[in-house]
Structure formats: C-alpha cells, structure tokens
C-alpha cells in the first residue's frame, strides 16, 4: 500500500483547506444569488490568494514526487476525496 510522507500529507491538507475556502465562498455567492463575476474586491483578493497558495503547494508536491523512496519508486502523493 502506498502512503504519503508527513510533508505530503500537510501539503494535501493545505489543498483541502483551499478547496473548502472556495466551496464556502461559492455557497455564499449562490445563497446571495450572485454570479462569480460579481465578486467584491475583498472576495477577489481572497480567491487570488487561494490561487497563489494552490500554485505554491502544487510546486511543493511536485518536488516531493521527484524524491525517490528506498525501493526506487517515485513518492507520488496518494489522494482520496480531494476536491481541488
């Protein structure tokens, strides 16, 4: 069975937090009947910050995947139920 390193797990948790933040924003917009193109400046900054965080975590996960485990296999992260 493949398992993640603690570092990979932290990165995946960060991605889940980003996904959750976007989901909360989407639900709020839907409840208010506003489309995505009607974001306030604060909401737009929030989405941009989340996007930057996702890009950073993505690069960090790529670096982790380049590392090799002792058995020579790539240490690719194992994701289950990730909504990003």
Structure description:
It is a single chain. This protein is 63% helix and 0% strand. It is mostly helical. Helix 1 (6-32) runs antiparallel to helix 2 (41-66). The radius of gyration is 16 Å and the shape is elongated. The two termini are 24 Å apart. The mean pLDDT is 81.
Unreliable spans are none
Largest sheet: none
- What is the arithmetic mean of pLDDT? 81
Shape: elongated
User: How many E-type strands?
Assistant: 0
Q: Please state the structural category.
A: mainly alpha
Please report which band the strand proportion falls in: under 5%, 5-15%, 15-25%, 25-35%, 35-45% or over 45%: under 5%
Helix content: 55-70%
Oligomer: single chain
Distance between the termini: 24 Å
- Can you write the helix and strand succession as a string? HH
How many helical elements?
2
Radius of gyration: 16 Å
Task: Compose a concise summary of this entry.
With 84 residues, the chain is an all-alpha fold.
């Amino acid at each position: 069975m493949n398992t993640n390193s603690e570092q990979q797990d932290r990165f995946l948790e960060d991605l889940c937090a980003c996904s959750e933040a976007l989901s909360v924003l989407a639900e709020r917009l839907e409840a208010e009947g506003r489309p995505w193109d009607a974001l306030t400046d604060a909401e737009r900054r929030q989405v941009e910050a989340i996007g930057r965080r996702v890009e950073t975590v993505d690069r960090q996960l790529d670096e982790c995947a380049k590392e090799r485990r002792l058995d020579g296999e790539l240490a690719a992260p194992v994701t289950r139920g990730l909504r990003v």
